[in-house]
From TrEMBL:
Residues 5-166 form the Glycosyltransferase 2-like domain. This is Glycosyltransferase family 2 protein. The keyword Transferase applies. It comes from the Bacteria. Keywords: Cell membrane, Glycosyltransferase, Lipopolysaccharide biosynthesis, Membrane, Transferase, Transmembrane, Transmembrane helix. It holds the Pfam family Glycos_transf_2.
Length: 239
């Protein structure tokens, strides 16, 4: 069984698939037993065909396909549920996350406390447009004030977390943007890790500042409600 499953959700990313898989294998071969789980979210280009062709060249690669487009959070959860590793690393499929950061995050996990279940990437030098950076700073400031999750960047696609802890979280669309707050709600600690960030390799972003803002308001209120309503207790077995 692999120690690590790298989960990558994709939608219309045919030109970014091979370069990113090459980088993942280069970063992890010889350092960890791993698998790569790509989840194609019903792409309308030939992303799936590219992935199928690569399976013959990359023994670590597994490919899942959604029969209907369901969004990034659902694709991530699909990949995590199918994963065989006890720990999960996620990457955005556009190539902006650097797979070379995964071994660094694993080393930090190995040296860290066992009650830290999430290591979240922190893009300290973002390679996005000015408007996107501004919108992200604004959204992060509002989120931090409402949720008090002590996380400077929840939108970064590269994360390392324990599979079991993730699957115990409440599931909803766009939940991937609130993993630090949700993990803390469950009683676990989280750590932000500075990571590399790059310009998109090919294709176009699937999000705009407007659609992020529209769904973000409702999501923030929902996550804040979940945090207020959370109950935790220790458990002991008798007998």
């Amino acid at each position: 069984m692999p120690q690590l499953s790298v989960v990558v959700p994709v939608f219309n990313e045919r030109d970014n698939v091979k370069p990113l898989i090459d980088e993942i294998t280069q970063a992890l071969r010889g350092k960890a037993d791993f698998e790569i789980v790509y989840v194609d979210d019903a792409s309308k280009d030939d992303t799936l065909s590219v992935l199928q062709a690569l399976k013959a060249q990359v023994p670590e690669l597994r490919v899942l396909r959604h029969l209907s487009q369901s969004g990034q959070s659902t694709a991530i959860r699909t990949g995590v549920k199918a994963a065989r590793g006890t720990w999960i690393a996620t990457l955005d499929g556009d190539g902006q996350n650097d797979p070379a950061d995964i071994p660094k995050m694993m080393a930090q996990r190995d040296a860290g406390s066992p009650d830290v279940k999430l290591y979240a990437g922190w893009r300290v030098n973002r390679q996005d447009t000015g408007s996107k950076r501004w919108a992200s700073r604004f959204a992060n400031a509002i989120r931090s004030r409402m949720l008090r999750d002590a996380t400077p960047d929840t939108g970064c696609g590269i994360k390392l977390f324990e599979r079991e802890a993730f699957l115990d979280l409440p599931y909803f669309n766009h939940m991937h943007r609130y993993l630090p707050a949700l993990m803390q709600r469950a009683g676990w600690k989280t750590v932000s890790v500075p990571v590399n960030h790059r310009a998109r390799g090919a294709g176009v972003s699937k999000y705009t500042n407007l659609n992020r803002a529209l769904v973000g308001v409702a999501d923030l209120r929902g996550v804040a409600w979940l945090i207020r309503r959370a109950k935790r207790t220790g458990v002991e077995e008798i007998g």
